[in-house]
């Protein structure tokens, strides 16, 4: 069964605890402009939310693929590699 996009903007929020650090990553995809924004928040006083715009995500399929990649992250190094790939 195929899912259709209902609205022009999709949001996906993912929170995971890595080494007792809570990390929240929010992906916001705008179908009209075919651009996305990644917002990263780390539950640590050393970090502030990090906003990373990127435009390679040009379809809903790419958005879903990015979510699957995000869910496989298990270490802070993997998270950093994931974020660097988006830039």
Counting DSSP E segments of at least 2 residues, the number of strands comes to 4
In total, the number of domains comes to 1
Largest sheet: 4 strands, antiparallel
Rg, nearest Å? 13 Å
The 3D shape can be described as elongated
Number of helices: 2
Mean pLDDT score, rounded? Answer: 70
Distance between the termini: 33 Å
Give the strand order, joined by hyphens, for the main sheet.
1-2-3-4
Give the structure's gist in a few sentences.
It is built from two helices and four strands. The chain is an alpha+beta fold and 87 residues long.
Present the secondary structure layout.
Blueprint: E1 9-18, E2 21-30, E3 35-42, E4 50-54, H1 60-71, H2 76-86
Antiparallel strand pairs: 1-2, 2-3, 3-4
What structural keywords apply?
four-stranded antiparallel sheet; 87 residues; alpha+beta; 26% helix; 4 strands
Molecular structure report:
- This protein has two helices and four strands, in the order ββββαα.
- A four-stranded antiparallel beta sheet has the order 1-2-3-4, with helices on one face.
- The chain has one domain.
- The longest helix is centred in the C-terminal third of the chain and has 12 residues.
- 26% of the residues lie in helices and 38% in strands.
- The protein is of the alpha+beta class and 87 residues long.
């Amino acid at each position: 069964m195929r899912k259709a996009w209902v609205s022009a903007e999709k949001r996906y929020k993912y929170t995971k605890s890595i080494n007792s650090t809570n990390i929240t990553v929010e992906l916001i995809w705008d179908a009209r402009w075919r651009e996305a924004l990644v917002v990263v928040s780390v539950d640590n006083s050393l970090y502030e939310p990090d906003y990373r715009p990127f435009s390679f995500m040009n379809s809903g399929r790419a958005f879903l693929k990015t979510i699957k990649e995000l869910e496989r992250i298990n270490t802070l190094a993997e998270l950093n590699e994931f974020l660097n790939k988006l830039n």
